[in-house]
Design a protein that fits this description.
The N terminus and C terminus are likely disordered. The chain is elongated. The protein is built from twelve helices and 13 strands. It is α/β, with parallel strands linked by helices. A nine-stranded mixed sheet has the order 3-4-5-6-9-10-11-12-13, covered by helices on one side. The chain has a two-stranded parallel ribbon with strand order 1-2. A two-stranded antiparallel ribbon has the order 7-8. Helix content is 34%, strand content 16%. The structure holds iron/sulfur cluster (SF4). The site of iron/sulfur cluster (SF4) has 12 residues, from loops.
Length: 377
């Protein structure tokens, strides 16, 4: 009955439980507490989950296989609301950046990147970030709060609304649907592990959004104690924001390295569960002029990741106002990429996307500040 206690103290519309953040077992528990008979539970859960996450319905009125009486009851207890899109920018290359306002408080960003064969959505896990990576714009914004599971799932639902990308919709003007998810937006996902796990499990569910675990990549700056849990408890693919091959450089670029240094990080990755050539770790490596882009860096990188099935994403630095770094010269990037490739690792150079709207890697930042939270409290 613990969850019923939550619902029994609901006072107004805002305290309705948001269905988007509930797993099927959560929904089942809530329905049981509302009086749904045990023998009906699994069918009701499946119906609700499918209307919400597969058909993208925002109102119980559309759920025509549920009785009017039951729909009325549901609408008193639950909401299906997404974070509100308060700004949308579309790049000349088709990338879309959304600024969301939460129904609670705070603003955060999400990016949709259409490509030839797929459409990738880059979602945020926190508003702001505690980690201050020196090349990252988000790192200049203090942490406001963790995002809730319904806000993690809601980013995808809202973007699918905007793209008319729900099943049954035939009027989509875009050829590419949302097929892949990367958790690489604002925040460190492993500092919000439980909420991110809950959100991603909902996204993967076959009766809902049904995005395969192999099409979801979670990127961490290196929160060592949680890294194995990405495989054992979530099951999606893993990316590591590496960016440096010595502790000296990485301490500056990714300061969490002072807590868990390169040696600890690499040892953890060498024993990562289920590693194989089909489930490789992706190393993210931002190319910064005269900081980490030499041939010596490339050689150290190859040595470090020896025996780890992996791929290295080389990311030309995307400048932002006030940043101290410069983008590596294309020739340097080429030499670096060729060395890594010759050593047997795939080393694509990421094509910057959405630079004109500040939607590229490391450029996200909203105006939400912690002071707003403090005022609210
Ligand atoms: S790179 Fe990721 S972890 Fe580092 S400051 Fe930016 S958002 Fe935070």
């Amino acid at each position: 009955m613990d969850n019923y206690i939550n619902s029994s103290i609901k006072l107004d519309l805002h305290s309705k439980i948001n269905l988007l953040g509930l797993s099927k077992s959560d929904i089942s528990r809530h329905l049981y507490n509302l009086g749904v008979e045990k023998k009906e539970l699994s069918m009701r859960v499946q119906q609700l989950f499918s209307w919400t996450h597969s058909h993208g319905k925002k109102s119980f009125d559309y759920m025509t296989n549920l009785s009017k009486e039951f729909r009325d009851l549901l609408s008193k207890e639950f909401s299906i609301s997404r974070p509100q899109i308060i700004n949308k920018q579309i790049s000349i290359d088709g990338t879309r950046k959304y600024l969301f306002k939460s129904e609670n408080f705070g603003e955060f960003e999400t990016v949709f990147i259409p490509e030839d064969e797929r459409g990738t959505i880059c979602i945020s896990s926190q508003i702001g970030c505690t980690l201050n990576c020196s090349f990252c714009h988000t790192g200049t914004q203090k942490l406001v709060r963790n995002l809730e599971p319904h806000e993690i799932v809601g980013q995808i639902s809202a973007v699918k609304d905007d793209l008319s990308d729900w099943c049954g919709k035939k009027n989509s003007t875009l050829k590419r649907a949302v097929s892949n998810v990367v958790v690489m937006g604002m925040g460190e996902p492993l500092y919000n592990f439980e909420n991110v796990k809950q959100g991603l499990k909902i996204i993967m569910d076959n009766e809902g959004l049904s995005i395969s675990r192999k099409k979801i990549t979670l990127s961490t700056s290196g929160v060592v104690p949680y890294i194995h849990k990405v495989s054992s408890e979530i099951g999606c693919l893993l990316a590591i924001s590496l960016h440096g091959t010595t502790d000296e450089i990485r301490n500056e670029l990714v300061p969490i390295n002072r807590k868990w240094n390169i040696q600890e990080l690499i040892a953890t990755l060498k024993s990562y569960p289920n590693l194989s050539n089909t489930e490789r770790i992706t190393f993210e490596y931002v190319m910064l002029r005269k900081v980490n882009d030499s041939l010596a860096d490339a050689k150290r990188l190859v040595k470090l990741i020896k025996n780890i099935p992996s791929k290295i994403n080389l990311i030309p630095f995307n400048p932002w106002p006030g940043s101290n770094y410069k983008t590596s010269e294309p020739e340097k990037v080429k030499i670096f990429a060729n060395y890594v490739k010759k050593a047997g690792y795939s080393s694509p150079v990421r094509k910057p996307r959405g630079v004109d709207i500040m939607a590229a890697c490391g450029q996200l930042k909203s105006d939400s500040v912690r002071e707003k939270v403090l005022k609210k409290n």
